[in-house]
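hey team, just a heads up i'm posting the complex here instead of the shared drive bc the drive is being weird again. everything in one block, sequence lines first with there labels, then the predicted structure for the whole assembly after. its two chains so it's a bit long, scroll down
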Amino acid sequence: MKRRNFVALAVATVLAFPVLPAAAQETIKIGLVTALSGQSARAGEAITRGLTIAIDELNAKGGVLKGRKFELVRRDDEATPAKGVIAARELIFKEKVAVLFGGLDTPVSLAIVPIINQEKLPFMGPWAAGTPITQNGANPNFAFRVSAVDEIVNLAMLQYAQKTFNAKNCGMILVNNPWGESNEKGLLAALSAKGMKPAGIEKFEGNDVDVVPQLTRLKTAGADCLFLVGNVGPSSQVVKSLERMGWKPPIVSHWGPAGGRFTELAGPNAKDVHFIQTYSFFGKQTRVGEKVMKALMAKYPDIKGPGDVTPAVGVANAYDAMMLTAMAIEKAGSTAGPSGPSSSTTRSSLWA
Amino acid sequence: MLVTSAIISGLGLGSMYGLLALGFQVTYSVSGTVNFAQGSAMMLGAVFAYTFAVTLAWPLVPAVVLALALCALYGALVELVAVRPFAKHGSNAWLMATVALGILADNTVLFTFGKEPRGFAMPWATGSFQLLEINFSLLQVAIPVVGLALAAGLHLFSRRTRLGKAMLAVVQNADAARLMGINVPLAISASYAASTVFAGAAGIMIAPLFNVHSDMGTLFGLKAFAVAILGGMGSAWGVMLAGLMFGLTESLITALLGSAYTQILTFALVIVALALMPNGLFGRAAVKKV
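-- predicted structure starts here --
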């Protein structure tokens, strides 16, 4: 798998404090706060699998910092920011994790980021794409990501809509939460850069049954393409509402539908949704990609081929993010934070 | 087109709110208590029907009938364990007990049915037809029709059957009804069973439009309670009508003003309506003789 260019590791200056033999036996806890139940449960499971494969690989090689192994500690945020904050606090203060990983939901990650910046603990986002998760204004900033960033995804969505569907008057149908807001801002900027305006901007709630009124407004405004932003459940509601209306505009979506049983939930029209993916296990793989695929098939009996690695984005990003984290910890020479004995930290290694 | 399609959407959702709210109204009239976890009963209806019709691949009719029967049993259970023990001592603890039982049901489903939402496609529900350049799905038309038919069924049940009349007698005067030989606990239990059957029916009908999962009824339950209060707890038709009005208002606000205003304006209108008519739009003030 390719290294993400926005998180490049370089040499970090490390003071050579001796590592005590007792500490060598201590495991390094990696925290994960993600949705393990509800509509995004599959996404949480995918992140768990990616992390587990990476941790197994790292531990088999003897871990980091002269023999310290990794241990994954995960908590369910039920896709709810309040529950995510409680879970994050538990992992930070009780479990004393060295690094905290986030999940699929931007609102949850946005709620956790102020805590990690306050506690000076590195946060790694393998999936949530909200721009302000990492661009949060904090200094020093402890939030990192190996995931797409909305403002870049939004450029790609517009480019795809123009190239594939010759779209000239796109409407937005966005989930009414901070992720939707992040995309509204990004899509408006992308459209504005090309001198375009949206046909309309409509929001819907995550548990709305009927999105027909919002979609009818967009249809009436002459939308020739829809930009869809929502997790798997809400996205399926949009597709089903379009089916009831008998309206079939091209749909260019963020990667929300990748997070669960989209085909089952959205019905036969699910195939008409074109969505962003940052990784796929289909096609020719790199050496690392082949290795991860082999490990997944060996560990999880339900994985018999690339088609069973769903959502692939979660698995691949989490694997990469864990590998980068391990390298950063190794470079830092310690898991102590800025107030610890080392002048270098996992954070500065990740920045480097 | 904008307004017509919003009206169709609003009537569909509104009749679901009305059916759930009718559940609140039935038990409140008979016993002065309600099952605050109506949303959970709605979810159970959909989960049972999905399990029988999809997981076990039964034909739809027996699957729905058995799902509704189980909902009725659940209603009787709610009354037996979460309402009766408290109400008979004049305690209001049933408020919390029914909520707690609902959470218990939600979590039991979460761990048995599964953590992921499932799609419940019904082949007949996907059909559609065009009228005045607007596409109507069969389900959108069927939902309000079935909703109103069930409300009419309740009306007939309470007027034409022995148990229904017994329930009406309990509504008027529980002590007098008891003296006349009416089994008051059975009448109350029946009202709870009817209430959860309505909720279950709403869940089954909404399932093809929505997804089946353990917390699918939570928001519906909340909105339905607002509808029940808005309609006036004493009037069955009032509650059903309030449900339709609530659904239409939501849908029309979204269509005409935009989705950003839907929740703010809908609930603001509920508050204004209740401030002007504290007993609900169709309710009457209770007369308390001293």
